[in-house]
Amino acid sequence: MVGDEARGEMNTFQRNESKESLFTFISAGDDPPKGDFTVQKKSPKLCGSNYPLSIAFIVVNEFCERFSYYGMRAVLTLYFISFFHWDENLSTAVYHAFSALCYFTPVIGAIMADSWLGKYKTIIYLSIVYVVGHLVKSVGAIPSLGNQAVHVVLSMVGLFLIALGTGGIKPCVSAFGGDQFEEEHTSERSKFFSVFYLSINAGSLISTFVTPVLRGDVKCFGEDCYALAFGVPAALMVLALVVFIAGSGLYRKTPPQGNVLLEVCKCIGFAVKNRLKNRSHQIPKRDHWLDWASEKYSKQLIGEVKMVTRVLFLFLPLPMFWALFDQQGSRWTLQATKMNADFGIYVLQPDQMQFLNPLLILVFIPIFDLGLYPLISMCKFNFTPIRKMATGMILAGMAFGLAAIVEVKINETDMPQLVPKESLIQVLNLAKNPVQVTIQDQNLFQQPVEALQNPDEYSRLILNGEQQSLRFILQHQGLSLAFNYTVKEKSVYSLIVFEAEGSLSSRLITDLEAKPENGLAAVRFINGLSQDVNLTIDNKQFIAVQRNYAVSGYLLVERDKYDNGKCITETGEFTLDLGLLDFGASYTVVITNVSGGAVQTWKSEDIKANNVHMAWQLPQYLLISAGEVMFSITGLAFSYSQSPASMKSVLQAGWLLTVAVGNTLVLVVAQAAPMAQWAEFVLFTVLLFAVCIIFSIMGYFYVSVDPEDLEEKEEKSETPSRGNMISLVTQKTKL
């Protein structure tokens, strides 16, 4: 076993994989194989060192696989929203259902490897499933292939196969790497795990930065290129499989030895069944409920299972931490889409913010291990593992508290909430003089609307039903004109007032009801000329607008300065300068005149641009990353120290299941209790603080043990053979 030696080495390079991989190389199959089998020849060494050449293939394989997984997952939430047009709650629910499945399936992979196929074949077979899942997912992202139902089916099948593949190989790859070393090379094996986890972090860090660029900055099929964003991770997974197979002749392959997780489950199941079968008061009670398994299982196994169940009991509150932590890829990414992403020299994609977590983890681990923890120790404060984990929970809760504050500030630029029997309206005065607008039964627009006055905000119309015909009276230069328009509830309108053929006229047009998604800008055009126009935006977007104040539809564009457009009229081609179309804003551009080789325009900002900068997410990423270092790495190390050597894989399975359950909690909240986003952030904050209190109380009463003491005690005690065990049923008959 290499756990004690490897733990200190690997912490330096651990990122959010810390929640899933610290014990990965410790399973039932890691003990020296029992029985007669052919001893394999020693693997060639790297450059005359004690490092097997085979580990180079394993490290490259892990880098490619992690790039593949995290790169695909980084763009997944925006894929659901932009490509499938799902709402935020459904997108979040499916994202976390996929994440939960990725942490349930490692149990399947561990059983396959330790009880049936062995690690090598399990990695090969499930990697093939993994590749197929990526390919199916990439094909499902091609817009021209089938309809919406086809895309959804292909994507869901692909995600299921990916979850089966990535989860299934998770407990096998690092364990297989540890198998390549001979028993006397423990220090080299420890350093290998450091390099192994460095490859995990490198793959995660690079992919979470690169794949959002492939999605947002590259266009294919006229929109964001999700096919490419999924295709590159698919290619990396193919490369991972090819590299792993290429080293086949160099690997040391140990046969399956049986899965200790199954033994533990059988032992617990037998104890429960035996206790229920023998409920008579005539049967003597036993000190512990697991002692009811002593008729079939050895004292040593029962003692080890007792230690494991004590730690697993402490795991019960832990899923709430992961419920918050894994929302970086869902709720926090969606929050970033509603923010200003311009950092001056670079415009960040909203899903790129996720790269901060692996980056901060690499920074924080040495700071905490070499600076913070020693400093706390010098202050004579007993910063126990339980206290560290509780502190990590508090930091994660604070991160979500900050996320709630940021969300409230973001909402200030949102459109007002639409409710039944209400609508919103603004007035765009395109005439040359002020106009007084009066609306039947409404007390709005007390002051005249100036010519080309940019409205500050929309006004509310109160209706008497689902729709109502309203009379609009316009007073202009001593003249009064009336117009009737039908207004529907929960709608947004602009009343355009303009001069046509020497008389005042108007038109009621429908506006956007919400901000454009994913940080895009929306723009529409009103042609105030007496001739039709054809507009070209950034040499890609073409719009035809008829004469005499006709209105175009909305055009969604990337945030940018558009100063090189073209306006083609009957009299020639002119330059069209729209200026900056900012994140999340909606604009109405009125073409007023043509002179001097350029088009004269007036631009109204109907929906305000995102004015909260994405940099305000940095504090919440700092807090949750610091919380992960204290919670995840400490929790795994503590669990490691509290379990016998043969039970490491059982605790690893329990740890991974806490991540799965945490993601399931997010799924339930997103679907069962939809609420305002800031309120949901506050809810998770309160829940985590409450769970932290419960966990602290449980930790206060927890008594640490040394697994070696148990082993020494069991060695000194006399253990009866299974052949001499008497079942409870026989004892009851004698009584």
TrEMBL record:
Keywords: Cell membrane, Cytoplasmic vesicle, Glycoprotein, Immunity, Innate immunity, Membrane, Peptide transport, Phosphoprotein, Protein transport, Symport, Transmembrane, Transmembrane helix, Transport. The chain crosses the membrane at residues 67-86, 92-111, 123-143, 149-173, 194-214, 226-251, 307-325, 355-376, 621-641, 653-675, 681-703. It catalyses: N-acetyl-D-muramoyl-L-alanyl-D-isoglutamine(out) + 3 H(+)(out) = N-acetyl-D-muramoyl-L-alanyl-D-isoglutamine(in) + 3 H(+)(in); glycyl-L-leucine(out) + 2 H(+)(out) = glycyl-L-leucine(in) + 2 H(+)(in); carnosine(out) + 2 H(+)(out) = carnosine(in) + 2 H(+)(in); an L-amino acid tripeptide(out) + 2 H(+)(out) = an L-amino acid tripeptide(in) + 2 H(+)(in). Pfam families: PTR2. GO terms for molecular function: dipeptide transmembrane transporter activity; symporter activity. It is a multi-pass membrane protein. Signal peptide: none annotated. PROSITE patterns: PTR2_1, PTR2_2. It is found in: Apical cell membrane; Cytoplasmic vesicle, Phagosome membrane; Membrane. GO terms for biological process: dipeptide import across plasma membrane; innate immune response; protein transport. InterPro entries: MFS_trans_sf (IPR036259), Oligopep_transport (IPR004768), POT_fam (IPR000109), PTR2_symporter_CS (IPR018456), SLC15A2 (IPR043381). GO terms for cellular component: apical plasma membrane; phagocytic vesicle membrane. The keyword Transport applies. Interacts (via extracellular domain region) with trypsin. Belongs to the major facilitator superfamily. Proton-dependent oligopeptide transporter (POT/PTR) (TC 2.A.17) family. PANTHER family: OLIGOPEPTIDE TRANSPORTER-RELATED. Proton-coupled amino-acid transporter that transports oligopeptides of 2 to 4 amino acids with a preference for dipeptides. Transports neutral and anionic dipeptides with a proton to peptide stoichiometry of 2:1 or 3:1. In kidney, involved in the absorption of circulating di- and tripeptides from the glomerular filtrate. Can also transport beta-lactam antibiotics, such as the aminocephalosporin cefadroxil, and other antiviral and anticancer drugs. Transports the dipeptide-like aminopeptidase inhibitor bestatin. Also able to transport carnosine. This is Solute carrier family 15 member 2.
